Amino acid sequence: GIQVEQSPPDLILQEGANSTLRCNFSDSVNNLQWFHQNPWGQLINLFYIPSGTKQNGRLSATTVATERYSLLYISSSQTTDSGVYFCAFGSSNTGKLIFGQGTTLQVKP
Amino acid sequence: NAGVTQTPKFQVLKTGQSMTLQCAQDMNHEYMSWYRQDPGMGLRLIHYSVGAGITDQGEVPNGYNVSRSTTEDFPLRLLSAAPSQTSVYFCASKPTPSLEQYFGPGTRLTVT
Fold this sequence. Notes:
The complex is a heterodimer.
Chain A: E1 4-7, E2 10-14, E3 19-25, E4 32-37, E5 43-48, E6 52-56, E7 59-64, E8 69-74, E9 83-90, E10 97-99, E11 103-108
Parallel strand pairs in A: 2-11
Antiparallel strand pairs in A: 1-3, 3-8, 4-5, 4-9, 6-7, 7-8, 9-10, 9-11
Chain B: E1 4-7, E2 10-13, E3 19-25, E4 31-37, E5 43-51, E6 54-57, E7 64-66, E8 76-78, E9 87-94, E10 102-103, E11 107-111
Parallel strand pairs in B: 2-11
Antiparallel strand pairs in B: 1-3, 3-8, 4-5, 4-9, 5-6, 7-8, 9-10, 9-11
């Protein structure tokens, strides 16, 4: 079946540092999203990015569909960036999303 | 718009009890789905619906029933709760299968 792998599984940063999270998937992309799950469990949409590059403030994402990976960049990290970051890959026919295991980020003051 | 809403926020059940988790959206989205999240894991798809009257199974459907009588509502029924169903349940919706998906706040269920 379709596989989604995220790396690294855990990441500890000092406030102000930059980081790159990676998502590899085993099939052709036609639907890819990045989510942030905050410490209260809420799932927040970051990017819908089946291909190309998008930026939103300190966050940006790039998906290279032909090479089956996506990257999430966090610049000048803040303590509020802490939580779990998920990528999810899906089919545009059925709409089903398959989630990776997540990257747990801790930003220390 | 309220977005995707879920009730209750928390629930404790005894083994063998039944209950319904409610999910509603006010965005006129055709596609709705239910996921469960177990500790330290990503979300896994339980059931989904591509429109009123149409439902299908996801990755982990056993022990759960769904129906979709209206565009707005997509309830998830546990017929006979088991401790293995202790989890956080998320409902989600999107306008069409190919677009961005939005999640509700979740229901934390404990089965003793």
